[in-house]
Amino acid sequence: MGASKTEHFTEYQNQIALLAKAMGHPARIAILEFLLKSKSCICGDIVNELPLAQPTISQHLKELKNAGLIKGNIEGNAICYCINEEGFEKIKTFFETLTSKSNSNLSSECNPNETCC
Amino acid sequence: MGASKTEHFTEYQNQIALLAKAMGHPARIAILEFLLKSKSCICGDIVNELPLAQPTISQHLKELKNAGLIKGNIEGNAICYCINEEGFEKIKTFFETLTSKSNSNLSSECNPNETCC
DNA sequence: TTTATATATCGTAATATTGCAATATTAAAA
DNA sequence: TTTTAATATTGCAATATTACGATATATAAA
Asked: Is B85 within the bounds of a domain?
């Protein structure tokens, strides 16, 4: 098939999966790191920072934008890219919720007769 | 091509991307939520919790296991699955690092003449 | 031993992703 | 207006992902 059965899952599950998927490529992680490191909008030349061809980077930027992880504005001849705090907040909150749930001692609740996980 | 150029990126970037990719599907988010909600190992019947066929779920579980997000042990007739705290810690730390970097006021550092992002 | 139950693997079809060359678009500079 | 520079879009080939039926495997129960 190849297409995810999104209709069977909650809005929330699909939303988080979409954000995670957008981060599921090293080039896109590199882009995010670069934008965060610079602590400002980057108007131009993300292309020179990455070992990929210009159309490929353009595509990755588009995906990050669609997922809501970055923003891009036209600035004359160049495009200004920066982090979209809103998208980051969403996925950050998800992780905080997840990890707060996972802090209990799991193994103590398993069958004590067996070596469980 | 279809294959990511992982050799051009850092270990760290590839690691995070791999974890994020594993979370990039609603079914896998649902599985993680289920394991976290139950606060213990689930020995059997994750299949009944999800609207997908058994082989499909088996495949998703395998991916989560490979990424280091869950653990699985054979318990007689069933398999015990639970959260792998280590993998979660890794991606959680990444987000904490990222978000701590992104808390500065980005727009103030942009060109004040333009509406930048 | 036979049967039932739970999970994994294989094979395969449908679809998505990745990467890039070629080309288009758009605005600044000359 | 023509040229230059930056980014986007298109088209396409290679590969990956998703989903599931059929089947294999392995343990428990009868």
From this structure: yes
Q: What is the pTM of this model?
A: 0.87
Q: Which of A4, A6, A21 is nearest to A87 (CA)?
A: A21
The DSSP-derived string for A2-56 is: -S--GGGS-HHHHHHHHHHHHT-SHHHHHHHHHHHHHTS-EES-SGGGSSS-HHH
In total, how many domains does chain B have? 1
How far apart CA B55 and CA B53 sit, in angstroms, is 6
CATH number for the domain spanning A53: value is 1.10.10.10
Domain extent at residue B43: 11-95
Per-residue pLDDT for B107 more than 50?
no
Considering the domain boundaries, does residue B65 fall inside one?
yes
Any domain includes B3: no
Strand C: positions under 7 A of a protein C-beta atom: 5-11, 13-22, 26-28
Backbone angles phi, psi at B109, to 5 degrees: -90, 0
Check CB contact of A74 with chain B, cutoff 8 Å: no
